[in-house]
Design goal:
Helix content is about 5%, strand content about 5%. It has one helix spanning about 10-25, and strands spanning about 240-245, 260-265, 280-285, 300-305, 320-325, 345. The protein has a six-stranded parallel beta sheet with strand order 1-2-3-4-5-6, with no helix packed on it.
Length: about 350
C-alpha cells in the first residue's frame, strides 16, 4: 500500500495493520512507506523486509530486532533510532542519517551505507562484513568488537572512533580519516590502508599481517605489541611513533620516515628499510638480522644492544650515530658515510 508523504505521523496501530495486511495471503507484499513520517514509531521485531522507506522519517523509532533485510532506506532519517539486533542485510542506506542510532549487534552485512551519517552511532558487536561504507561519517562511533571483514571504508571519516578488538581483515580503508581512533587489539590482516590518516591512533596489540599502509600518516601513533609481519609501510610517515615489543619481520619500510621514533624490543629481521629516514630515532634491543638498510639515514640515531647479523647498510649515513653494545662486524658496510666517526655511547 502507498502513503501520502504529507501525512502526519501514522499511529502504531495503523502501521501494524498494514504490516499484517502485507503478509496476508500466499505472497508477501513489501510495504511502500516512501517519505512517510514514522517518527518515534514502535516497530519492534516487525517483519518489513524489502520495504520501501526511501526518505522516510524514522527519528527515534523503536526497531529492536526488526527485519529490514533488503529494505530501501536511501535518504531516510534514523537519528537516535533503536536498531539493536536489527536485520539489515543488503539494505540500501545510501546517504541515510543514522547519527546516534543504537545498532548494537545489528546485521548490516552487504548493506550499502555509502555517504551515510553514523556520527556517534553505537555499532558495537555489529556485523558489517562486505558492507559499503565509503565516505561514511563514523566520527566518534562505537565499533568495539564489530565484524567488518572486507568492508569498504574508502575515504570514510573515523576520527575518534572506537574500534577496539574489531575485525577488519582484508578491509579497504584507502584514504580513510582515522585520527585519534582506538584500534587497540584490532585485526587488520590483509587490509588496504593506503594513504590513510592514522595520526595519534592507538594500534597497540593490533594485527597488521600483510596489510598495506603505503603512504599512511602515523604521527605519534601507539604501535606497541604490533603484529605486522610482511606489512607494507613504504613511504609512510612514522614520525615520533612508539613501537615497542612489535614484530615487523620481512616488513616493507622503504623510504618511510621514522624521525624521532622510539623502537624497543622489536623484530625487524629481513625487513626492507632502503632509504628509510631514521634521523634521531632511538633503537634499543631490536633485531635487524638480514635487514636491508641501504641508503638509510641514521643521523643522530641511537642504537643500543641491537642485532644486525647479515644486515646491509651499504651507502647509509652514520653521521652523529651513537652505538652501545652493538656488533656490526657481520653487517655489510660498503660505502657507509661517517663510519670512521662512529661513536660509542
Amino acid at each position: 500500500m502507498e502513503f501520502n508523504p504529507d501525512d502526519r505521523i501514522l499511529s502504531d496501530k495503523d502501521l501494524w495493520e498494514f504490516i499484517v495486511m502485507s503478509s496476508t495471503g500466499d505472497a508477501y507484499r513489501p510495504l511502500n512507506l516512501q517519505g512517510a513520517n514514522l517518527q518515534g514509531a514502535n516497530l519492534r521485531a516487525a517483519n518489513i523486509h524489502r520495504a520501501n522507506l526511501k526518505n522516510a522519517q524514522l527519528r527515534g523509532a523503536m526497531l529492536y530486532k526488526t527485519n529490514l533485510a533488503e529494505a530501501s532506506l536511501p535518504g531516510a532519517s534514523l537519528v537516535s533510532a533503536n536498531l539493536e539486533e536489527a536485520e539489515l542485510t543488503r539494505a540500501n542506506l545510501l546517504g541515510a542519517d543514522l547519527s546516534r542510532a543504537d545498532l548494537r549487534g545489528a546485521d548490516l552485512s552487504y548493506a550499502n551505507l555509502t555517504g551515510a551519517n553514523l556520527l556517534g552511532a553505537d555499532l558495537s558487536h555489529a556485523n558489517l562484513s562486505y558492507a559499503n561504507l565509503s565516505r561514511a561519517d563514523l566520527r566518534g562511533a562505537k565499533l568495539s568488537e564489530a565484524y567488518l571483514r572486507e568492508v569498504n571504508l574508502t575515504e570514510a571519516y573515523l576520527r575518534g572512533a572506537n574500534l577496539f578488538s574489531a575485525n577488519l581483515s582484508e578491509a579497504t580503508l584507502i584514504k580513510a580519516q582515522m585520527m585519534s581512533a582506538n584500534l587497540r587489539l584490532a585485526i587488520l590482516n590483509g587490509a588496504n590502508l593506503q594513504g590513510a590518516n592514522l595520526c595519534d591512533t592507538n594500534l597497540s596489540g593490533a594485527e597488521l599481517v600483510k596489510a598495506d599502509l603505503t603512504g599512511c600518516q602515523l604521527y605519534r601513533a601507539e604501535l606497541s605489541q604490533l603484529k605486522a609481519q610482511q606489512a607494507i609501510f613504504a613511504e609512510a610517515e612514522l614520525i615520533v611513533v612508539s613501537l615497542h615489543k612489535s614484530d615487523l619481520t620481512k616488513a616493507d619500510l622503504r623510504a618511510c620516515n621514522l624521525y624521532g621514533a622510539s623502537l624497543r624490543d622489536s623484530i625487524f629481521d629481513g625487513a626492507l628499510l632502503h632509504e628509510a629516514q631514521l634521523v634521531g630515532t632511538y633503537i634499543e634491543q631490536c633485531a635487524f638480522n638480514e635487514a636491508t638498510l641501504t641508503h638509510a639515514d641514521l643521523e643522530g640515531a641511537v642504537l643500543k644492544y641491537c642485532a644486525f647479523s647479515g644486515a646491509d647498510f651499504s651507502y647509509a649515513s652514520f653521521k652523529d650515530l651513537i652505538v652501545q653494545g652493538v656488533d656490526l662486524s657481520q653487517a655489510k658496510l660498503e660505502g657507509v658515510e661517517y663510519l670512521d666517526l662512529l661513536g660509542e655511547g
